[in-house]
């Protein structure tokens, strides 16, 4: 069959219009936008929400601060007396033990004082011994006399009263003398003299010891500038003993970091070159107030260094928190609802949505720390929360 030109044009136009219409319908069906926050695979109905249990999540590695290992503990060596050096027994760099003699001074006068004090002690001791012997003898005699008088008094019962009265008076007198002896007053003077002599001897010996300059602690001797014949004065510093067995680690902390270390007794320290080799350092001091210049808080640690692990003048890492402390209550950031400067989350309490104000902390990936407002195992609404009001009835769906 042959069509006219007009009919061919009409059929072509209808076919083209139909194809365009079908294409538009298909295009519209494929390009419907997904509302923000909606699940691409499923759409929540009114009042339907999804929840997850509130749990702890890591906010990262333990927080740390770089700190300085101070020079070894330095203790001054001081002269305890004034005098002239007669001998130097230890040189700079020598290892010393507490009490080791470093140098000695002329102590002739002090030695004579000790000898004199020792003689005084011997004399006082002899006098005290003699006094005690005399008291013992007199006591024995008095007891014998009292016994005799008591016998005479019994025998004189039938005698006249004057005789009895005389015996009684004598008996009371001797008993009083015995009581005085037993009280120790008769040897008190000798005892005091002896104790005074002992004290003078102790003081004389202490003075003599002061003429020997000794090490105040174990360590390495440095800074000594003494020669035979040189003079020193009492209280002057004549050297230093460095003790490497115990080192001090110092750091300056921000207010936040100071709060992390406060109320702890120990912190972990290590060299950045080997994080596996750690030591526990005791907290000696953590400032309550910041330094007025830099607004930082001073931290001082003490740690045993008997094995020579730490080198004065180096730097170490101080761990202010542990791995466990970095595991904190955290929620998905998308579950947080913001209203101006306030932040909230919704918790499913049975079938009721509870609006809970929260205080936010650190952010790590998809989770944000919750400092206040939530606790673990609560049912946090993670989908549909932006359409809720406090007290709304909700249905939890999977």
UniProtKB/TrEMBL annotation:
<dbReference type="GO" id="GO:1990281">
    <property type="term" value="C:efflux pump complex"/>
</dbReference>
<feature type="domain" description="YknX-like C-terminal permuted SH3-like">
    <location>
        <begin position="328"/>
        <end position="396"/>
    </location>
</feature>
<feature type="signal peptide">
    <location>
        <begin position="1"/>
        <end position="38"/>
    </location>
</feature>
<protein>
    <submittedName>
        <fullName>RND family efflux transporter MFP subunit</fullName>
    </submittedName>
</protein>
<dbReference type="InterPro" id="IPR058637">
    <property type="entry name" value="YknX-like_C"/>
</dbReference>
<dbReference type="InterPro" id="IPR006143">
    <property type="entry name" value="RND_pump_MFP"/>
</dbReference>
<keyword id="KW-0732">Signal</keyword>
<dbReference type="GO" id="GO:0015562">
    <property type="term" value="F:efflux transmembrane transporter activity"/>
</dbReference>
<comment type="similarity">
    <text>Belongs to the membrane fusion protein (MFP) (TC 8.A.1) family.</text>
</comment>
<dbReference type="Pfam" id="PF25989">
    <property type="entry name" value="YknX_C"/>
</dbReference>
